[in-house]
Amino acid sequence: MKRMKLLAAMALSVTMAGTASADLVIPSLEYRTGPYAPNGIHFADGYTDYFTLLNERDGGIGGVPVRVIPCETAYNTEKGVECYESTKGEGALVYQPLSTGITYQLIPKATADGIPVHSMGYGRTSAANGKVFSHIFNYPGTYWDAASIIVKHILEQEGGDLSGKSITLVYHNSAYGKEPIRTLEELSKKHGYNLTLIAVDHPGQEQKSQWLQIRRERPDYVLMWGWGVMNQVAIQEAANIRYPMDHFIGVWWSSSENDVIPVGEGAHGYKAIAMHGVGDDYPIYDDMRKYVLDAGKAAGDGSNLGKVLYNRGMYAAMLAAEAVRTAQEMTGVADINSAQMRDGMEALKIDAARLAELGLPDFGPPIEVSCGNHGGPGLGAIQQWDASAQSWSLITGFIGADRDVVDPLIAEDSSAFAAENNITPRDC
Amino acid sequence: MFYRESGDFKTSYVQDQQIFPIALDRVFVGIVIAFAFLVVPFLIDDYWEKSVLLPVLIWSLAAIGLNILTGYCGQVSLGTGGFMAVGAYASYKITTAFPELNMFIVVLLSGGVTSLVGIVFGLPSLRIKGFYLAVATLASQFFLVWLFNKVPWFYNYSASGQISAPERLVFGVAISGPNAPPWATYLFCLTFVVVFALIAKNLTRGRYGRSWMAIRDMDIAAEIIGVAPLKTKLSAFSVSSFYIGIAGALFFLVYLGAVEPTEAFGIDKSFLVLFMIIIGGLGSILGSFIGAAFMFLMPVLIKNVFVGGFGWSTDIVAHLIFMIVGGLIMFFLIVEPHGLAQLWRVTKEKLRLWPFPH
Fold it and tell me: If you average pLDDT over residues B186-207, what whole number do you get?
């Protein structure tokens, strides 16, 4: 009898959880374990803390509290699928899996389920074409934008001429690492540099032979598409062979403090592309300390505030929250669903004034998403590591990508996807 | 009292040789299969499909495959992940080259391709044994994954190196792609698993199974009594790879839908399947199922109880899973070195005698 009661109570609580829908459900597919945890933890902390801040300070978004459901993926696609399936029934509004592999999994599934995916600066680059990828967004920039911006920066350093120069790409041997290759090849045709590709296998702790090759060939520039422990190992190896650090440029996922700090002085001058500002010199951090940290509600131990990936997680959460707000304004409904969320993301507009209002003045470039363009402005700045001050600083303003090269590639790849999957592009 | 064969008379050799000689066993297995085919498809939802049933079915098939090679024929293999990759890439190449081909045939052909690859990598087994063979198959694991990453032909020159399953229909119902209903994908996999588990059971009871076991128990003695090692070992490699290839094809087409070789078919997959058959029971078809369910479902269960039930933080639970699953593996290996299937065998013996054990 007692057991029956318990079962009934459990069943009741399960159905209650299903129907208690007066909240905005945002699943956080995060990874705090495994070889990618050093980066995953910072992002997850920033992501969760921002929503906690909104709940504590403003009572949620538009008066509706946000419920973040954490789910550990360990950067593993199968666990990611399990997380997606177990959380989508709760009324999930948007997924930000922070993994290109999981994003590839979710692109068809989430589109069929009508739930938007925001792969912010990762995932499938051609998802920037909103005509084909109705539910996938990757604003504020894509891998191909990043590759093009880095090459632009190199051009500027070399006085506008790259003919005869050599560039080596060190990449994570996965869908993620392979993404920029197409663009870099196109750009090499345009600018006349020699491109060498060097793959590093998961998880990337062993890179001796790769760096031996770089040591032998001495390319003029080394680019890196790395993630997790691969980053710090690569920077360490570069320091070991005394590669000039200011000629070593990482993508925005190879740009955090825990990639460079273990290398010490050797990492001084390492560059990476940034999609947003660095440091904790923003008014929002006062609120973050007051409402979240000091109240003991931080997701992590609170030591990561202002770190690059913490900022990025917060930025991702902020973009999601702003999309919720946009959707609420568009529909007049406070408790939106995933279809309304998608419309909100597509109508998202964040200008400099709005950023300042949010306590993040000049944190990132203005963003305007449209039906046809899910890839946002595609702007990036170059940041450089100062080992003695232990801080990053932006050394350029936000630069645009070479749209003449990137846009045709996006059109080509997305139309191939549309043909493969029998998708008729939407009219925009 | 419940579980005995007294009064269950066999009057012909056919009856005497059936797979389940005890009437109660036959009824029970029949009910389980009927339940799986007739009831589960009406209850299944996306979560049960993608997180529980499909992976367990597919891993069971892979475990049966490895069990044929390792459990029955005694050849240790660490190449399971690589062979699954062969199955997955074969199914991708076949179904993109011939979109009209029936999916049952596509999956079977992928199994066939894997079987051929398995024979090639099985050749060293004629000269080397034990740990040395394990290392040779380890080479196949790394070689195959490297190959699928390196040669763009295998992934149809896609920019990311990923392969993704296109939508394919069987009898007018999608079984791959995002719009496939859960019951259809489940029934598709279940059909393969039930049919091939029965075939495996019969294979291992027949001439081939006996020669495999002869080679396993003592290869020189087997050779003397007339079991040809070449034919026997290669047939074990071939059949085993066939099963693993089918599992790989289903894993890619039906379960995940998009894979990249390093992550989906890495060395950890080879170990996972090896653990499944060691925990489940070497040389037992039932053990393959139990081992697959144990190794796959235990982490999901622990996660659901601690994160979903008690609200613990996800990273602590993720670490806890490593400890609990690791501890359980050691516990079972110490308490029952022959695997979970042996527990069931012992229970069965006890039940037959109960309540008069002497």
Answer: 95
Give the mutation candidate from A30, A48, A77 for the B interface (greatest B CB count, under 10 A): A77
d(CA A402, CA B78): 47
Instruction: Determine which of B314, B316, B317 to mutate to test the interface with A (most A C-beta atoms within 10 Å).
Output: B314
Output the domain CATH number for residue A203: 3.40.50.2300
| A281, burial (CB in 10 Å: exposed 0-12, middle 13-18, buried 19+) | exposed
Residues A132 and A243 both lie in one domain: no
Q: Does B162 touch chain A (CB under 8 A)?
A: yes
**In whole angstroms, what is the distance from residue A98 CA to residue B213 CA?**
48
Q: Do B257 and A174 touch (CB under 8 A)?
A: no
Considering only the beta carbons, identify the residue of B55, B177, B260 that sits closest to A101: B260
How far does B204 lie from chain A, in Å, by closest CA? Answer: 32
Q: Who among A74, A112, A178 is closest to B161 (CB)?
A: A178
pLDDT of residue A19 exceeding 80, the answer is no
Q: Are A245 and A268 in contact (CB under 8 A)?
A: yes
- Does any domain span residue B223? yes
The boundaries of the domain holding residue A48 are: 2-142+280-379
Kindly report the average pLDDT of chain A as a whole number: 90
What's the burial of A187, exposed, middle or buried (CB within 10 Å: 0-12/13-18/19+)? buried
Within this chain, do residues A6 and A89 fall inside the same structural domain, yes or no? yes
Q: Within a domain: residue A420?
A: no
Domain count of the fold of chain A: 2
Residue B285 lies in a domain: no
Residue position matching structure tokens 């001058």: A269
| Residue count of chain A | 428
User: Closest Cα of chain A to B228: distance in Å?
Assistant: 41
Helix (H, G, I), strand (E, B) or coil at A309: helix
Q: Are residues A22 and A34 in the same domain?
A: yes
Range of the domain at B56: 39-266
Q: Determine the 3-state secondary structure of B13 from DSSP.
A: helix
Shared-domain flag, residues A41 and A161: no
Number of structural domains found in chain B: 1
Task: Pull the structure tokens for residue A355.
Answer: 């950023």
Note whether A313 and A68 are within 8 A (CB): no
- Give the closest-approach CA distance of A115 to chain B in angstroms: 13
Instruction: Test B50 with A81 for CB contact under 8 angstroms.
Output: yes
Check CB contact of A45 with chain B, cutoff 8 Å: no
Name the β-bridge partners of A383: A272, A394
CB pairs A-B closer than 8 Å: 99
Residues constituting chain B: 358
A166 and A117 within one domain: no
Q: What ipTM does the predicted assembly reach?
A: 0.87
B265 pLDDT higher than 90: yes
Whether A40 and A149 map to the same domain: the answer is no
Residue of A nearest to B322 (CA): A33
Is the CB of residue A172 less than 8 Å away from at least one CB of chain B?
no
Domain co-membership, A265 together with A359: no
For the stretch B287-341, pLDDT in tens is 999 999 999 999 999 988 998 888 888 889 999 999 998 898 888 888 888 899 9
A2: pLDDT strictly greater than 70: no
The residue of B151, B252, B315 whose CB has the most chain A CBs within 10 angstroms, and thus the best one to mutate to test that interface, is B315
Q: Read off the pTM.
A: 0.90
Mutual orientation of helices A100-113 and A77-88 as an angle, nearest 10°?
30
Q: Are residues A400 and A262 in the same domain?
A: yes
- The rounded distance, in Å, linking the Cα atoms of A93 and A413 is 27
State yes or no: cis peptide before A203, omega within 30 of 0: yes
Cα A124-A126-A130 angle, rounded to 5 deg: 110
Asked if residue B83 belongs to a domain, the reply is yes
A427 in a structural domain: no
CB-based contact, B178 to chain A, within 8 Å: yes
A169 neighbors A213 (Cβ within 8 angstroms): no
